[in-house]
């Protein structure tokens, strides 16, 4: 059925020639792209590969790791090769959300020390073979304070030049705060996704983080508003997404509604986007991943929930 | 002339009888009614003959009974008629008699009329019984349908309240779980894209969207590029930050060609301060870029272990040189078994001697 593009404006039919802005891989390294989901079309990759995206927020607990896991797996389902890096030195969580905690044997610290090679530290997801996880460190290991940024740059260069080819996306899960971990994580990034919740504490921290990112030279910053409750917005107990956008002045990548499935998926180690009938939040993450691929942003947002209109016969249980 | 009161009294009397009674039309010239002090009652006209007016026969007290009762009572205000002469009386009597007959006829006709009215206006129950049963059944079915629908809605509402959130039945109701998935008979979902699939339906006019069974209202984004640039300028003024490139411990001097804004001071008690000089950066970089072979540290450990083993073996050789192999045989105990075993032992000894010499040669 026809799909009026209310959510995105960068919709093109699949058979148009690629625009000059899009990066075309060298024929020798191009791999056949297979998508497990039966789409009528695939999202068209925009920008130069590898696209290095840092997911940050400033405030802790707003959903960075959840966004990293779900967006990363969505990208893998679309057929792109993804490497997710958990840049939290000391508090590692991304492996838990992905259900790969028992398979992390080596981290970047071991690679730097020479205990293993980089490909031995990459954990390949058995569900999606084009998704790999790389953790910076184990909880008890240390990384020199001025050394992390360089290490990440070396890592990205090594990933670009590996024999199986450069990944399409390198997604870095940034730790909370604006300290050494934040500086380390944003070092190799070209673009950023800012995750925030519609409350004033998160917004103030987010504004500061945006300022630091812009000072560091990262201009392509998009926003994901997480844990949105339309009932509270309607009752004016929560800021609307448009209010948040007005305060921060960033284009929207996605709006994720509050969903209890997030907690279940976290505890089970099974990301939301893999649920067979997709949940509301899972669909929102998929849409955000689609827009990330096409470098698009939202043009309309969900404001409030409306009562579903029922027909005459619905009174009789229809 | 009959007064209004009398007519009203008569109507009151008639109300006591059955439905559909009509008033008797009595010529007013015949009877004169007088109001009593207490109640309205018939007053008998004082004539030679008592006037008896029969109304509709019923069980209630009839006016004639009341008039008979009134005869015994004392009358204070009784009107008297004028005296009538004998001749006049006969004519009047005849006239009176004719009038009575007409009254009787009238009453009979009125009775008949009343009866006809009763027969022509049957009560509702009689109408329902007499008419066809279709309309009755239609009414009953409508009432039953409305009752059923209300009961069903009530039951559904109650079951929703009682159903625990997150249960399998709740997930199936919300459309987040298909019953076929649990039985392994569901087909794979085919959706065009995350924006337009069975779980995402755009409303008419694109003002609403239905996602996972819930309908949401949409509003367009109002942020313009001008507003974005205003925010960027505001932040560039508010936040001045430079990436730290030089990390110094407390007490170290700042190099002359280094921007002080890029210096990061590490406190002495910082957990990462102790690891600054542990890792050689060039070595680390080489470790990261290594794609094949044994990792550096493992190779180094392996080499170190091999060296140690060789050193140990060299020490053993030195120790073993002090013992003569032939002399060692003299000290061996005699074998209790057959000679074949002795030969085997000799062969084994030769083999062990050869292997040790080979090892020493290899190392």
UniProtKB/TrEMBL annotation, chain A:
It holds the Pfam family CbiA. GO terms for cellular component: cytoplasmic side of plasma membrane; cytosol. InterPro entries: CobQ/CobB/MinD/ParA_Nub-bd_dom (IPR002586), MinD (IPR010223), MinD_FleN (IPR025501), P-loop_NTPase (IPR027417), ParA/MinD_ATPase (IPR050625). Residues 53-269 form the CobQ/CobB/MinD/ParA nucleotide binding domain. The keyword Cell cycle applies. GO terms for molecular function: ATP binding; ATP hydrolysis activity. ATPase required for the correct placement of the division site. PANTHER family: SEPTUM SITE-DETERMINING PROTEIN MIND HOMOLOG, CHLOROPLASTIC (PTHR43384:SF6), SEPTUM SITE-DETERMINING PROTEIN MIND HOMOLOG, CHLOROPLASTIC-RELATED (PTHR43384). Belongs to the ParA family. MinD subfamily. NCBIfam families: minD_bact. This is Putative septum site-determining protein MinD.
Automatic annotation (TrEMBL), chain B:
GO terms for cellular component: chloroplast inner membrane. Residues 350-363 have a biased composition (Polar residues). The chain crosses the membrane at residues 136-155. The keyword Transmembrane applies. Residues 61-77 have a biased composition (Acidic residues). The keyword Membrane applies. It comes from the Eukaryota. Residues 57-90, 321-363 are annotated as: Disordered. GO terms for biological process: chloroplast fission. This is Protein MULTIPLE CHLOROPLAST DIVISION SITE 1. It comes from Brassica carinata (Ethiopian mustard). The lineage of its organism: Eukaryota, Viridiplantae, Streptophyta, Embryophyta, Tracheophyta.
